[in-house]
Amino acid sequence: MPKRPINADVPAPEEETKEQSSPPGKPDEEVASPKPIEKREKKVASPKPVEKRAAEPKPLAPKLLAGLVVLAIAFIVVAIVGGSGGTGDSTVATGPASAPAPALSEESASDEGAAPPETAESLGYPGFATDNTTRVGGADAAANAAAVALAVFPSTTPSQRPAAVTLVSEEDWAGAIAAAVLMAPPIRAPLLFSAAAELPEATSEALEALDPRGDKSSGGASFFAVGAVALPGGAAKTTRIDSGDPASTAAQIATLRDRLFGGPPKHVIVAPSASPDIAMPAAAWAARSGDPVLYTETGKLPQPTAAALERHPKVPVYVLGPSTAVSSAVVREIGKIAKRVKRVSGEDAVANALAFARYGDGDFGWNVNDPGHGFVLTRSDSPLEAAAAAALSASGTWGPLLLTDDAGTLPAEVRSYFLDVKPGYTTNPTRAFYNHVWVIGDQEAIDVNQQAEVNELAELAKIGGEG
What CATH number belongs to 44-54+155-261? Predict the structure, then answer.
């Protein structure tokens, strides 16, 4: 077990690592194990044209502006409450745990031409923030997706808007996770949710601000529509992907990805279509890397997935999940197509996400075993949120998805992992590395006390005596 907390003041010495290999003639099914970083890096369907909208830029929607005003006030209140009356060693802001930000009165809202403060809550804007965590706590997946999209693309100027947005059915978790690859550079299309008949209000509000207009990176498309989803009125060019079984949908998205990226991926992830909780971490990596996500059944490799793999037989394949989710027979079948196949897994959803966060194999995998990273935490029974939050893993403080399986209690293995990567300093905290955690979901999904615990685990710690 690494020392806790890790001293992030100085670079870790380089260590020799041994490359793991498979026995001759057999695909490598090696299960991921924690592995320290050697050196921390700084750093499809045919388009269907529809009527284009007017070219003039749009101002932010009034409700959106009101939401941002409320958000700013909430942050100020949290900063005042969390920054006063405590000791210098305190690591948890008291605001979220003890008192929510006060709401504006109807009179003050109307004086400013603003909407009531519940607008911000309905869109899932971060309402509870500590010094090391930020919560996106909307009422549903559509609200959380809208909040994430606007956090990554504030859209106050044309340069802050995405070229395209991906719309996926609220019923299609598999399509949403596969579509996360379209968030990777150069496309960078955030994901929003829709229904067949109409757009959710949160999605409409976000789209009015995001105002995607398409460019070369998106093939001229303003929207990627996965399945039968409603589009905003006057939507510009739309590229449609049929939504059927998970394997077919993901294969189409992989084909679209190849066309827009202009070449094959560096790696491919194969995830289980029958286990959404096991497949969830693939969304974050797809958005971060541009590696497509394909699906398999537990005991059988679907034909669309096999065909997609056959297009790039030299591309390494990584199977996500234990043998109970993806059988060894399927891994062997993939090994007959791909030049190299490896398994990354944990025995359950929480352990599986941790294994992926720790895993590194060349330029594949997060390999996050030291401090100084971003993390995204959501519930293991919320695959739509995992897809929506993938944009946070491909921007800001880029980092892996972690899972919790209980509203009130952080899993022991997640707590242990946060301690392993806890940042520390010896003399100068301003030169240390820092961790930040996005918490996705309202308090019914992840209790504020669990958020406070995560905040404390992510806090920068002093190492050694006075000096």
Answer: 3.40.50
What the block records as the tokens of 402 is 């972690």
- Phi/psi of residue 224, nearest 5 degrees: -110, 115
CA-nearest of 144, 397, 181, 427 to 284 is 181
Q: Where are the domains of the chain?
A: 1-12+25-43+264-428+456-467, 44-54+155-261
pLDDT of residue 112: 37
**pLDDT tens column, 389-400:** 999 999 999 999
Q: What is the CA radius of gyration of the chain?
A: 22
Beta bridge partners of 129: 134
What pLDDT is attached to residue 102?
A: 31
H/E element, 169: strand 165-169
Tens digits of residue pLDDT in 266-278: 999 999 999 999 9
SS3 content of the chain, % helix, strand, coil (to 5): 35, 15, 50
Residue 143 three-state SS: helix
pLDDT tens-place string over residues 104-139 = 333 333 333 333 344 444 544 555 789 999 999 998
Q: Which residues are 364's β-sheet partners?
A: 361
pTM score over 0.70: yes
The DSSP line for 186-232 is: TT---EEEE-SS---HHHHHHHHHH-----GGGTT-SEEEESS----
Contact 172, 249 (CB under 8 A): yes
Distance CA 429, CA 439 (A): 25
Q: What is the spatial distance between Cα 249 and Cα 234, in angstroms, rounded to a whole number?
A: 26
Examine the pLDDT at 405 and tell me if it is beyond 90: yes
Nearest to 165 by CA among 132, 137, 134, 191: 191
Please state the three-class secondary structure of 253-265 as a single string: HHHHHHHHHCCCC
Contact between residue 152 and residue 210 where contact means Cβ atoms under 8 Å apart: no
254-265 mean pLDDT = 97
